[in-house]
Amino acid sequence: MTRILFWLALIFLVIAAIRSKLKSASRPPEQQPGRPRAAAEAPPQAEAMLCCAHCGVHYPASENVASDGRNYCSSAHAGLPAP
Length: 83
Ligand SMILES: [Zn+2]
Fold this sequence. Notes:
Strand order of the largest sheet: 1-2
Structural class: alpha+beta
Oligomer: single chain
Shape: rod-shaped
Bound molecules: zinc ion
Number of strands: 4
């Protein structure tokens, strides 16, 4: 009788171990412990880029020099006529 109880307990433990292994394997990767969330890996917001009306180079909008309704990369190009 003791042998039967031992084998039943062993089988139950093996099945429980397999079920918990399958449950953790089917979870999405961002919910697994030990991994950072996808939102934490997101890059910072990119700054808008503008195109210089004189030389055509793309530059950050924070460095914009507006003149006569057009956008320029520098004050030197803002004073020059478009090519
Ligand atoms: Zn320019």
